[in-house]
Design a protein that fits this description.
By secondary structure, the chain is mainly beta. It is built from no helices and eleven strands. It starts with a strand and ends with a strand.
């Protein structure tokens, strides 16, 4: 059974940095595109970043380009999202997702999901 477990969320101040992790199990990690989405109450889940199975290609939401960096460690079956220069508008629940095909920005095209981790940025 596939499991994705996020960790590393928390409460930070504007301008701070935070790294969230997504530990996976029960899947052949190197065959999956890994992505991060975020969602606020009452809003649709929003694409944040994705990384190809090879790690060579990364994709970002325009508003986080230059501030966030997605990466993966195939030896640890773990994906990461490094978030720098955080802003209050980055406050959301962040979800890790896995897709066994080319990358997509559509949340409903991802096969596996974690439970989410709360990131709160105070002004």
């Amino acid at each position: 059974q596939v499991h994705l477990v996020e960790s590393g969320g928390g409460l930070v101040q504007a301008g701070d940095s935070l790294r969230v992790s997504c530990a996976t199990s029960g899947m052949n990690f190197i065959m999956y595109v890994m992505a991060w989405f975020r969602q606020a109450p009452g809003k649709e889940r929003e694409f944040v970043a994705a990384i190809s199975w090879s790690g060579k290609n990364t994709y970002y939401l325009d508003s986080v380009k230059g501030r966030f960096a997605i990466s993966r460690d195939d030896a640890k079956n773990t994906a990461y999202l490094q978030m720098n220069s955080l802003k209050p508008e980055d406050t959301d629940v962040y979800y890790c997702a896995a897709r066994k095909r080319s990358y997509s920005r559509k949340w409903d095209e991802y096969e596996h999901w974690g439970q989410g981790t709360q990131v709160t940025v105070s002004s």
